[in-house]
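quick one, 316 residues, struct below
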Amino acid sequence: MDSPVKDIAAVSVPEAAAAPGGPTRATRLGPVALVVAGGLSVQFGSAVAVLLMPRAGALGVVTLRLVLAAAVLLIVCRPKVRGYGRADWGTVLAFGAAMAGMNILFYQAADRIPLGAAVTLEVLGPLILSVIASRRLMNLLWAGLALGGVVLLSGGGFDRLDPVGAAFALAAGAMWATYIVFSARTGRRFPQADGLALAMAFGAVLSLPFGIVEAGDKLLVPSTIGLGLAVALMSSVLPYTLELLALRRLPAPTFAILMSLEPAIAATAGFLVLHQALGVTDALAIALVVAASMGAVRTQVRGATRPARDADVRDS
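---
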């Protein structure tokens, strides 16, 4: 069985580092713009999803997002279903289940607490996974910094945020960490975006009963479907495509650092679209979590690249 640590380590060292001289500043600007655009698309898509919740409910929105995104990806990718073994299918089904669980839990959180706070708590899942995977003492400092941000965000107690919403966001973070592990494994087993399309379809099937129970025939209202399609395109299809293009030219650790900006982007989207104002304390809390995420990634990259550099010195 593959190890989660191995999955994280596999994307810890920049591919571009193998090239003589590494990537130039100019070659990085394009991929960085793609990642930032993807982050903006995801979080503003989440803001639109919050606006849609009064019509279809949180579970209905999840169903619309996954079903419509799966339909688009299946049409575009036309993935093959033959030639794969039991382990391959087990991986893609686990990926789809993690995707559905992450979305269900996150939208339950976003229905109860501000979007910026929800994403800030959710990002703790990947951060903790990164700390565990690296096993470096320095990452304990980053974990402590993130914990300080969470304490500030909660105001000393999650009752200020709505404890149920905060719990959903933390659970979504755990599912996000699981999503990362199985996303990496799926990418190794399936070509291009085939695995993503198949996983999205399975996640859509899992979410469908929940959406039908909560929203029923509201899911069939044309205007609701239109907004749901916007959420699917903004939160799934467009960002996944942009990230896929970016990762072909951008070192994975740089990508991870940019993804750490998600809480700040979410807070901005919440302010502009949902009029969710941030206090000074909330802004500081989000900044601490963002800084902790960036620091953890950078520490992990240094640890992963140091042995290779030492070997170069010994061989010279």
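Confidence is low (pLDDT under 50) at residues 1-23, 307-316.
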